[in-house]
Amino acid sequence: MAKSIKAPWRKYYGEEKEHLEYPNFSAYKLIEYTASKHLNNISYNYYGNQKTYHDFLKQIDEAARAMKALGVKHKDVVSICMPNTPEGIIAFYAANKIGAIASMIHPLSAENEIKHYLTISKTEWLIAIDFTIEKIEKILKETKVKKVIVVGVSESMPPLIKSLYTATNMSKTIKLKALNPMNYLMGEEKEKKNKKINWKDFIRQGKEYTKEIDDDFKGKEIAAILYSGGTTGTPKGVKLTNLNLNAAAMQNFEHVGCLRDKDKVLAIMPIFHGFGLVVCIHCVQYFGGTSILLPQFNAKSFDKIVRKYEPNVIVGVPTLFDAMTKNKSFDHMTMPYLTCVISGGDSLSVELKKKFDEWLENHKAPTTIREGYGLTECCAASCFTPLNCYRPGSIGIPYPDTYYKIVEEGTEKEVPYGQEGEIVITGPTVMDGYIRNRKETRQTLKKHKDGRVWLHTGDEGIMDKDGFVYFKGRSKRMIISSGYNIYPNNIENVIDSHPDVSMSCVIGIPHPYKVMAAKAFIVLKDPKKETEETLFSIKKLVEQNLARFSWPYEYEYRKELPKTLVGKVAYNVLIHEEEMKNKTRKWDNTEEILEQVENETSNDELIDQMKKNGEEE
After folding, report:
1. In 3D, which of 155, 118, 119, 111 has the Cα closest to residue 137?
2. Rounded to whole angstroms, how far apart are CA atoms 507 and 520?
3. For residue 575, what are the contacts with CB-CB under 8 A and spacing of at least 6?
4. What single-letter DSSP state applies at residue 282?
5. Are residues 137 and 79 part of one domain?
6. E-assigned strands of 259-388?
């Protein structure tokens, strides 16, 4: 059946395999199998606390026994509300080893968000970082949670760093009552003690479970739940199978092409995000690399992390790489050890790629930045720039066994090469569906006439005749202005290419005549240049590169842009701000507005616009 799908990109695979054989067992089993080949390699490094694969497997087994001792059963949900610490990844694989489902929760989520995640997943067992306990306490009675395992951030730190961390954070006791989990279980909280246990006691109790653990978790069984849905509304729980996770790890390793045994990978992206869990953890553990776990990240001091660990691979979002080029502390550093740089999670502009590639060359790093594309619904990555072939503006070509089509939005009708449409994907990494949300699942996963289930991404894109894919923007961000479709991503790319611009974000704002118009929020590299002269220069660049109908109606300088919990620009926050502002906005009178629109629109464009609106008469 797969042979009937066009796949022109395959000629660019080079030595890459077109097809991989995927095992019919658990994510843990894949790691156990591959770890047997490199038991003495370092699996992870946490502030200098290094564990070999032999030690890591032992820690997973201890945690798996502890879960069994608590009563966790096959298909039970274990929610893991943790940053990137050893206990977070140990818990993930331990749950998987006993056939439980790991529900990954952002520890900075609001109380109601955590309650929602625990409720829709029907969680009975929760493993949480200490600083979330106050929030969890407030909603615990409204959930089905039987036991909370409390983990300290410093739990696995080396003794010296642990003591320094504790001393530094003791002054923050106002909100971190649970810095020492045992202290939290004392005093006024003592009556709730039976529902909580600290990590060490949890592991200690597991020693009482001496039965053999029957690891017969199959490929198509649900292994994890990740949450996706953007910055507003209720996020949806994405059900990922063992096959999804294992295929993603194997495909990433095969397609990236430059990952090697013992490579050190900075695990900056969080484990509750598909990008972090799959690319920085599961894939790395699959090929025998080292995940350098960073529970918190500071762009300003990132040079110290790079200098200390000398990573071979850096995985991050575009804002990280933009920040690196501005960090003067990197000056005079050379990085011959940096052999792979992966950008994902957001669109990498052509201008930023060019700038960062020059930065890498100046720092003696023998690589270029390569962009990937994906969604949580397909394990975060399914398309990536080939090793030795880059096309400006392209997000690359599909992974092995993964197929892309560009179709007319909402249909399965494929459009010709070079024509814009909706990106749809099929392959072994496509999710099982959304948890307890059949309606959204049916709208997103659709069976086409070829018999395959395709993931309708809602993203706009183009495929050229060679199979290279070009991301054009999220359709949910699309601005319809006077009948025209405006894609914010296109405007942002032009604005970001201005030498004075650090980053931008374009949204749609209400307009009395056009219904919606574009507004650009701009962050400059040097705030002192926030002048009319600079803005005139930016506008001129936009007018030179974009059709008149897509020019922003308004521009606004910002010192910084709001970010989501995983570092993306939170454009929905800006939309909400403008909606609130619009309630008190005073528009010009109608005659002035119509005159302005006429001045903004050429005759030819106006005719086309009228035809689109069915107003030829």
Report:
1. 111
2. 7
3. 507, 508
4. I
5. yes
6. 264-267, 290-293, 313-316, 340-343, 369-373, 383-384
CATH code of the domain containing 193: 3.40.50.980
Single out the residue in 444, 472, 500 at which a domain terminates. 472
H or E segment to which residue 95 belongs: helix 86-97
**Enclosing domain of residue 338:** 1-24+245-472
| DSSP characters over 240-278 | EEHHHHHHHHHHHHHHH----TT-EEEE-S-TTSHIIII
**Which of residues 439, 472, 505 is at a domain's end?**
472
Above 50 in pLDDT, residue 276?
yes
287 in helix, strand or coil? helix
Which CATH number goes with the domain that contains 607?
3.30.300.30
User: How many Cα atoms occupy the beta-carbon half-sphere of 19 within 13 Å?
Assistant: 4
**Residue 165: C-alpha distances to residues 23, 95, 176, 283, 291 (Å):** 42, 29, 13, 30, 21
* pLDDT per residue as tens digits for the range 315-327: 998 888 988 998 9
Count Cβ atoms within 10 A of the Cβ of residue 485 and give its class: 0-12 exposed, 13-18 middle, 19 or more buried. Answer: middle
Nearest-10 Cα torsion for 477, 315, 343, 32: -80
- pTM higher than the cut 0.85: no
pLDDT class of 230 with cuts at 50, 70, 90: very low
Same domain flag for 86 and 192: yes
Residue with token string 């000056």: 331
Q: pLDDT digit string (tens) for 392-404?
A: 999 999 999 999 9
Overall number of domains in the chain: 3
Q: What CATH number is given to the structural domain containing 285?
A: 3.40.50.12780
Q: Tell me the per-residue pLDDT of 139-186, one tens digit each, with 9 for 90 and over.
A: 999 999 999 999 999 999 988 888 877 777 654 433 434 334 334 334
How far is 132 from 108, CA to CA, in rounded Å? 8
Asked if residue 98 has pLDDT above 80, the reply is yes
